[in-house]
Amino acid sequence: MSLNNSSSVFPDSVPSNTNRFQVNVINESHESSAAAEDNADPPHYEETSFGDAAQNRFRVSFRPGNQECYDNFLHNGETAKTDTSFHAYDSHTNTYYLQTFGHNTVDAIPKIEYYRNTGSVSGPKVSRPSLLEIHEQFAKSVAVAPGSADRVANGDGMPGDEQAENKEEENKGGAVKFGWVKGVLVRCMLNIWGVMLFIRLSWIVGEAGIGLGVLIILLSTMVTSITGLSTSAIATNGFVRGGGAYYLISRSLGPEFGGSIGLIFAFANAVAVAMYVVGFAETVVDLLKETDSMMVDPTNDIRIIGSITVVILLGISVAGMEWEAKAQVILLIILLIAIANFFIGTVIPSNNEKKSRGFFNYQASIFAENFGPSFTKGEGFFSVFAIFFPAATGILAGANISGDLEDPQDAIPRGTMLAIFITTVAYLGVAICVGACVVRDATGNLNDTIISGINCNGSAACVLGYDFSRCRHEPCQYGLMNNFQVMSMVSGFGPLITAGIFSATLSSALASLVSAPKVFQALCKDNIYKALQFFAKGYGKNNEPLRGYILTFVIAMAFILIAELNTIAPIISNFFLASYALINFSCFHASYAKSPGWRPAYGVYNMWVSLFGAVLCCAVMFVINWWAAVITYVIEFFLYVYVTYKKPDVNWGSSTQALSYVSALDNALELTTVEDHVKNFRPQCIVLTGGPMTRPALLDITHAFTKNSGLCICCEVFVGPRKLCVKEMNSGMAKKQAWLIKNKIKAFYAAVAADCFRDGVRSLLQASGLGRMKPNTLVIGYKKNWRKAPLTEIENYVGIIHDAFDFEIGVVIVRISQGFDISQVLQVQDELEKLEQERLALEATIKDNECEEGSGGIRGLFKKAGKLAITKPTPKKDSSINTIQSMHVGEFNQKLVEASNQFKKKQGKGTIDVWWLFDDGGLTLLIPYILTLRKKWKDCKLRIYVGGKINRIEEEKIAMASLLSKFRIKFADIHIIGDINMKPNKESWKVFEEMIEPYRLHESCKDLTTAEKLKRETPWKITDAELEAVKEKSYRQVRLNELLQEHSRAANLIVLSLPVARKGSISDWLYMAWLEILTKNLPPVLLVRGNHKNVLTFYS
């Protein structure tokens, strides 16, 4: 696009638009510099503003005085290009920086869409360009449609799947969302202002006095305030979804704590519905008693009224959150009027009837008399506190509907903390006012006035003209200590207090009826308890948990009809307190773990205060009711163990994970300060398995002596073009580590990409491990196909053994008769799995069509099935894709599969024969000893074979037995082999000679020139000189095989000292021939060579 002078390109006034880039022009000519010096204004520099750049356009604005420069630029005949061809223009006199930031490149600018989760309700997730797309050559690696690069860079494009997901979210649009007032503040205030405010607070003041009563309120508020601060911190540390307390705890401490507390918290809310409804029904029944309008009897009337009330509340809840919110607002207005009615009543002059019942308006004498405690028999500070504390709960009412809030991160802290403050002020105000107006005991008799001359003895009522002294000897019906309807008496209009009681009970019941299904639905959606998945489904635009509503309704009805609520109430209170304790602990734990992801926007919290809050909640649980606290802990512990055992497949980045990392890091660092000691030696192995599933037997035998005692790293080397290798390596990392976890193998997976196999192994040997947790033993499988393998493979194989010895790392070579690699079998199994899936899909399709289309559709499907059967035969129904029987003969080697599982099975009674021919520090002896400690090998006894002199067999046997006893290693027998250095028989030697024949040079049979030429052309071949120099060693390997055949043919496992090939003296092919002849036709063999440093000691 060429720039021109039209108004569309350079408008005189450009409105602010964040969807475009703005580039200001810089004039760098000498003239403009001089002019700038004369100008009082400071120089103008390039300014680039960018935002949601949704369009591939740019605009240029200029400072006053720069219009002429622009005109000159445009008249030069040059054009400024945009999109992919745009470039900065530089003339002789002026330089213009017109390139915009964020355009013209695949690289993306920071945007919120890149950080959203898939399926986010707050907006679509967009995938940023991968590092590969940015790093590789653009033309060769990335195919970009014209104009798409800029869209991708600025977040306008997205994958098809995510587009579909976001479209579905849009279709569900119109969901009702609440702000912080209606969503949190109103709900929390209604839930905290319970029936306790109207019928128990006056009694608490009477028992504890104004002073301790205020202390009880403040202590309760301290618990809830600390919990509110912790809740606010967790809620502002990332986007909050539905689930309330369960969501906050589970995302902080993990599914174990969240799953256990979520279930009991939902149940507590469901039973709380019954508690509040029964409180409402009892008040109604009391009114019916006064008017003599009972339906049946008090108990059944409560059941009838309670059942009807629950049905009505259920109807309001099912109608939708919007109707429920409107009902809550109406109830709050009634409640506020009732509270205001009480305060107004305290200043209305009292009449004689009220005075006889103990109400005298504000009196300093009453305040002074009621300031101290006056506990009755059986009551004390903590018992009164236990009665009041449930009135302070309900602070999570707003958080419990977090999924229905517009901005939970803002609404939860603001609404919760303000609700705690307002309700605390109200509780304190009511407590102080009622304590300053009403005496503790009153008779209610209008004639109990003072007779002149009576000594009042400091009684406030007496000073005010009433004699209530007989209340000391007989029970009275009125006063703070006796009458639960004090607030009705004091208020300006008594029925409004009754309306307030109705409002308090119904609003709390309604809040609990909404909270329980919401929390329960979030718990079920996470599929922690698979049996509860049925209740995860939501309906309507608000995703209402209708099934959860029905379940809550059933639970509430059951407890209304059959339960003893006085017994269950303390348990429910403890359930809520357990939730508070875990929320506080979550905040402390997240702070203590020091995870960089812990960045709450709400900074008014302290980790130690949160910990104190958690301890305080636990203490309050025992104060309220010790046996209820024990029951709560037992249930929570049971659920915790259950969830831990089931191990749900979730990863929420909990603080438990963060703390595990910190602990592991601290322990690893601490370990580096500890010097190695021979008593603490353990085999720490690098196992060259390739993919761990391709050589399971090699991994199994290694895992047998490293499990729970040493490090085990399964390693794979990707050889080939680096780009392809790295891609393949990265894509399989998580899958292969997951395979290890699934198969309960305590090992790590590591991989490298290298130009050749030996280079990769060398890198692993040097760089694997961390601090003291570094490998000290290399475990490899025996190269069974060495005779057919290319020269480079043999050089690499023998080379890695040399490298291990160079790095002072022990070597273990494992040989089994069938070899280790079962990749072909796995490939066949994958094919059969695909066929089985196709068969099941086909059967399901046929079944559906039988229901929908009738016989005509079925015939069509059978035609389709026939075509499929031609291309890929379908296995029979009774076939098993995970067993040998499911594979066709010839597609796999049955013996290979059996051999790959041989170390998974329990080894029967037998022996592990240890041929400890050379002292390598003791590794050859330690590994078989560790094996005998394992459950699968514990029935195998150790037989020790060592070399010795024929004329000193008994002496050397005694010496070896003494050494083993000092090492505290149990053994079944010791054999001293005195004829190891004898020549092997001719047949065995002939086999060895035939084995190495293809690799011999035979230079002694040729003239000198030809021999030298052959040496240069094939330096890897075995020369006659080399063979003659090590003839004794070759004899020994052949002879050892004869002895092994003779003594250890029936052993379960043979552990044998590995011969060492001296570098530069023993050719690779000769060394492979030694290993072949040494282990030929034997049970499983471990060739072991330690690094010649002690791994055994007999010192304490």
UniProtKB/TrEMBL annotation:
Pfam families, per database record: AA_permease, AA_permease_N, SLC12
Membrane-traversing stretches: 192-219, 261-281, 302-321, 327-348, 380-399, 419-439, 546-565, 571-592, 604-628
PANTHER family documented for this protein: SOLUTE CARRIER FAMILY 12 MEMBER 1 (PTHR11827:SF93), SOLUTE CARRIER FAMILY 12, CATION COTRANSPORTERS (PTHR11827)
GO cellular component, one term: apical plasma membrane
The Amino acid permease N-terminal domain, residue ranges: 90-157
Full protein name: Solute carrier family 12 member 1
UniProt entry tagged with the keyword Transmembrane: yes
Location(s) in or outside the cell: Cell membrane
Coiled-coil residue spans: 825-852
